[in-house]
């Protein structure tokens, strides 16, 4: 086993630890780890990430369910259009994208640049969401759904997830608070269930039967991440995850600029 592979599996463990310790954000590192340490191409990297993100979110979501924090009705209402969005993009859009999208003179704008460039751009608001302190605001009144906006938001989040392979919790959580009038802690827990189902179903409906999946590698990588979740959850009894969250947010900023630099300067 090469040193980059050892480092890659260690990063898979760290992804899980971060999820267990601070409650999110770590899975966004799956795509760069797969792409730069395991040399997985952009299509497979985003596909594998969907499975890894989905499995990790499912574990976290079930833990929140047993605490009574998951609003399953909201998860279904928001999750269905999200599942449709991610499945459609993975099954129809991603396979149809050509290797080179367009050229300007001698410059070729490739599919990889588009997918990883969008990924890097969306890592920035994800980092901001980790730097921002969430207010545990008590919401009065019943849950009320703005169905047209939920449909649009769900499809949009699903499409973004399909393109970049990330969960999109930083988009889902504020949408649940604003469009479904749920409390923040319930929105965080419910978002994990939405992420789990849209990611896993998006992977199985859009990728599992159309791409050559290395199941041995994918399951080992995912297993490291899941083990990391339990390690992180145990560590959270002794370490304040909120204090580490800002540092991790700044690290995501650095990774965003690293991906942009690698794809638009080094790769050329």
Would you write up a description of this structure?
The protein is globular and about 55 Å long. A two-stranded antiparallel ribbon has the order 1-2. It is 74% helix and 3% strand. The longest helix is centred in the last third of the chain and has 26 residues. It has one domain. It is mainly alpha-helical and 268 residues long. The mean pLDDT is 85. Helix 4 crosses helix 6. It contains 10 helices and 2 strands; from the N terminus they run ααααββαααααα. It starts with a helix and ends with a helix.
Brief summary:
With 268 residues, the chain is mainly alpha-helical. The chain has helices spanning 3-22, 30-37, 42-66, 72-96, 111-131, 147-164, 169-180, 184-206, 215-235, 241-266, and strands spanning 100-104, 107-110.
The portion of residues assigned to helices is over 70%
Overall morphology:
globular
Indicate the multimeric state: single chain
Largest sheet: 2 strands, antiparallel
Helix/sheet category:
mainly alpha
Distance between the termini: 29 Å
Going across the biggest sheet, name each strand in turn.
1-2
Count of discrete structural domains = 1
- Average pLDDT confidence is 85
Uncertain residue ranges: none
Features:
two-stranded antiparallel sheet, 74% helix, 3% strand, 268 residues, globular, mainly alpha, single chain
Walk me through the topology.
Elements: H1 3-22, H2 30-37, H3 42-66, H4 72-96, E1 100-104, E2 107-110, H5 111-131, H6 147-164, H7 169-180, H8 184-206, H9 215-235, H10 241-266
Helix pairs in contact: 1-2, 1-9, 2-3, 3-8, 3-9, 4-6, 4-8, 5-10, 6-7, 7-8
């Amino acid at each position: 086993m090469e040193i980059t592979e050892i480092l890659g599996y260690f990063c898979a463990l760290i992804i899980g630890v971060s999820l267990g310790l601070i409650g999110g954000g770590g899975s966004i590192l799956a795509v760069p780890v797969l792409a730069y340490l395991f040399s997985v191409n952009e299509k497979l990297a985003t596909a594998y990430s969907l499975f890894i993100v989905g499995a990790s979110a499912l574990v976290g979501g079930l833990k929140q369910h047993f605490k009574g924090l998951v609003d399953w009705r909201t998860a279904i209402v928001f999750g269905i259009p999200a599942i449709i969005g991610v499945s459609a993009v993975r099954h129809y859009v991603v396979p149809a994208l050509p290797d080179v999208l367009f050229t300007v003179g001698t410059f070729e704008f490739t599919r990889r640049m588009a997918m990883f460039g969008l990924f890097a751009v969306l890592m920035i608001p994800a980092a901001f969401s980790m730097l921002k302190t969430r207010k545990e605001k008590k919401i009065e009144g019943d849950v009320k759904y703005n169905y047209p906006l939920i449909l649009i938001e769900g499809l949009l989040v699903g499409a973004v997830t399909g393109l970049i392979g990330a969960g999109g919790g930083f988009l889902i959580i504020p949408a649940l608070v604003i469009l479904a009038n749920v409390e923040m802690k319930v929105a965080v827990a419910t978002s994990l269930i939405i992420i789990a189902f849209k990611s896993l179903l998006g992977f199985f409906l859009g990728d599992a039967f159309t791409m050559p999946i290395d199941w041995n590698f994918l399951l080992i990588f995912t297993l490291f991440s899941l083990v990391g979740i339990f390690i992180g959850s145990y560590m959270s009894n002794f370490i304040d995850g909120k204090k580490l969250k800002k540092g991790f947010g700044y690290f995501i900023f650095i990774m965003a600029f690293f991906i942009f630099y690698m794809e638009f300067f080094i790769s050329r």
